[in-house]
Amino acid sequence: MNHELYMNRCLELAQKGQGNVAPNPMVGAVVVYQDKIIGEGYHKEFGREHAEVNAINAVHDKSLLTASTIYVNLEPCAHFGKTPPCSDLIIQYKIPHVVIGAIDDHEKVAGKGVQKLEKAGVKVEVNILKKECLSLNRRFYKFHNSKRPFVILKWAETKDGFVSRGLTSIKNGEDNWITNSVSKKAVHEQRAVEQAIIIGKTTALIDNPELTTRLVEGKSPLRVIVCHKPLLNENLKILKDDSPTLIFNTEIDQTVGLKEWIKFSGNLIEVLNELYKRNIQSVIVEGGTQLINQFLDQKIWDEAYNFIGDKEFLNGIKAPKIKALPFSEKKIENDLLRIFKKL
Question: Which of 35, 137, 198, 260 is the most exposed place for a label (fewest CB within 10 A)?
Answer without folding.
Answer: 35
